Amino acid sequence: MGARKRLMAEKRKEENKHIAFASLRNSPIAPRKMRLVADLIRGEEVNKALNILQHNPKTASKSLEKLLRSAISNWEQKNEDKSLEDEKLIVKTIEVSQAGMLKRIQAAPQGRAHRIRKRSNHVRIVVDGVKN
Questions:
Q1: Angstrom distance (rounded) from CA 126 to CA 38
Q2: pTM for this one?
Q3: Long-range contacts of 69-74 (CB under 8 A, 24+ apart)
Q4: Per residue, what are the HEC states of 27-96?
Q5: pLDDT tens digits along 20-33
Q6: Of residues 83 and 40, more confidently modeled
Q7: Which of 4, 71, 91, 94 sits 20 to 30 Å CA-CA off 129?
């Protein structure tokens, strides 16, 4: 590895020390529905985001709440020297992308068939600590 590449890698590693992430793969909820809930918590403080997710009636909020709790746990493991009370954790980024699609057929009148696309998604959430 070249010197410049190594220096950039070390710089990137130093920047990423404060963040932690968690990802959810192949969630059986349509990405459009998941994005509606994800937009509610983007940029919010972690406790407020958990509160929003707990009181949201949508199905996607349950899986996002689990994912956010996982990201918080990952942050605690990564930063053992820091406490959760001293740092203010925020949801830095949350990305919802389309995953594979199950294609099914539903019978229609007069011998025809309609295609049903059952969409799924991938979610990646990044939690960042900000000092008070």
A1: 12
A2: 0.86
A3: 70/22, 71/20, 71/21, 71/22, 71/125, 71/126, 71/127, 72/20, 72/46, 72/127, 74/20, 74/21, 74/22, 74/127
A4: ECCCHHHHHHHHHHHCCCEHHHHHHHHHCCCCCHHHHHHHHHHHHHHHHHHHCCCCCCCCEEEEEEEEEE
A5: 999 999 999 999 99
A6: 40
A7: 4
